[in-house]
Design goal:
Blueprint: E1 5-8, H1 14-23, E2 25-27, H2 38-45, E3 50-54, H3 61-66, E4 73-77, H4 86-92, E5 96-97, H5 104-120, H6 122-130, E6 151-155, H7 159-170, E7 174-178, H8 185-188, E8 192-194, H9 197-202, E9 206-209, H10 223-228, E10 233-237, H11 246-255, E11 258-263, H12 274-278, E12 282-284, H13 293-312
Parallel strand pairs: 1-2, 1-3, 3-4, 4-5, 6-7, 6-9, 7-8, 9-10, 10-11, 11-12
Helix pairs in contact: 1-13, 5-7
The chain binds (2R)-2,3-dihydroxypropanoic acid.
The site of (2R)-2,3-dihydroxypropanoic acid has 7 residues, from loops.
Length: 322
């Protein structure tokens, strides 16, 4: 029997590519490894049985509506699904799968790294050295703030948020959280639940954001909510860039209302809001949340498990989101 054909939109880790090539005929678009627009996806999907895509690829409703009938599954190499019109896929009867769990620790590590970099001004310090402008140790140079005893507010206490909470407890931080539903006492492990935004924001010496993208969360952190954070608070975002009003965040960083921000995700990646480039108190990372060797292999294998279920075994995929 011929191997099913996959449109694989992006280059993937070696072990994942090897397993994919063993079981599928792979079609990869030519050119640089970057997110694929709708036209390239439609051209590549002709005659394919499945699509293995990644965050940022243009699978909007119009594109999904035009996919050939041969496509029986869309497996995304991400936990986030905001780049895929799930309702359109549902309407076409095309299952969509993602890669939950395996990236929680890696993403929490990046969030904690950004919290530390913001608190201790690591970005500014590194830039000082690289500019050859360090004139030597000084008692008042680049003073940051200690995290021990500070309140970490986690917005979105899912798997990633809970991993971050564990790390924060180890550092002596007091964990507060805002979530759609309250966790069980065992999952909370002493974290303070907030049922409304105002009390939550007022309790955040550090706010770490872990909410999905999409219309419902667009610009969640706007000027009004920023104003409710204590003066000198730190904001970190490793969820999706669209959840932050960039102009409002930059204004609060400039006015001194916020001490610092650490961002791994941006609206319109890879282009980012111009104001961030010149703000000294913002640390910028190029969407590295899940970028460890172990995690990226595990994400790829999750994708292949889902594809195998549908295309090789005729079974339901284990990580279906739509
Ligand atoms: C995810 O898995 O959603 C990460 O943000 C990488 O896209």
């Amino acid at each position: 029997m011929p191997k099913p054909t996959l449109l694989q939109t992006r280059a993937l880790p070696e072990a994942v590519e090897a397993r994919a090539a063993r079981d599928y005929a792979i079609r990869r678009p030519e050119g640089p490894d970057r997110t694929l627009e709708s036209a390239a996806i439609l051209a590549g999907a002709e005659g394919c049985d499945g699509i293995l895509c990644a965050a940022g690829d243009g699978l909007d409703a119009a594109t999904i509506g035009k996919l050939p009938d041969s496509v029986k599954i869309i497996a995304t190499f991400s936990v986030g699904t905001d780049h895929i019109a799930l309702d359109a896929a549902k309407a076409r009867g095309i299952p969509v799968t993602n890669t939950p769990d395996v990236l929680s620790v890696a993403t929490a590590e990046i969030a904690m790294m950004l919290v530390l970099m913001c608190a201790r001004r690591a970005g500014e310090a590194e830039r000082l050295l690289r500019a050859r402008e360090w004139t030597g140790w000084a008692p008042t140079q680049l003073m940051g703030v200690t995290l021990e005893g500070k309140r970490l507010g986690i917005l979105g206490m899912g798997r990633i948020g809970q991993e971050l909470a564990k790390m924060a407890r180890g550092m002596g931080m007091v964990v507060h959280y805002r979530n759609r539903t309250r966790l069980s006492p065992a999952e909370e492990a002493g974290a303070v639940f907030h049922g409304d935004d105002d009390a939550f924001l007022a309790a955040c010496d550090v706010l770490s954001m872990h909410i999905p993208g999409g219309a419902a969360t667009k610009n969640w952190l706007d000027a009004a909510r920023i104003a409710k954070l204590p003066r000198g608070a730190i904001v970190v975002n490793t969820g999706r860039g669209t959840t932050v009003d960039d102009a409002a965040l930059c204004a609060a960083l400039e006015s001194g209302h916020l001490r610092a921000a650490g961002l791994d995700v941006f609206t319109g990646e890879p282009k980012i809001f111009e104001g961030y480039y010149s703000a000294p108190n913002v640390t910028l990372l190029p969407h590295l949340g899940s970028a460890t060797l172990e995690t990226r292999d595990a994400m790829g294998f999750r994708c292949l498990d889902n594809l195998d279920a549908v295309l090789l075994k005729g079974a339901p995929p284990p990580h279906r989101v739509a």
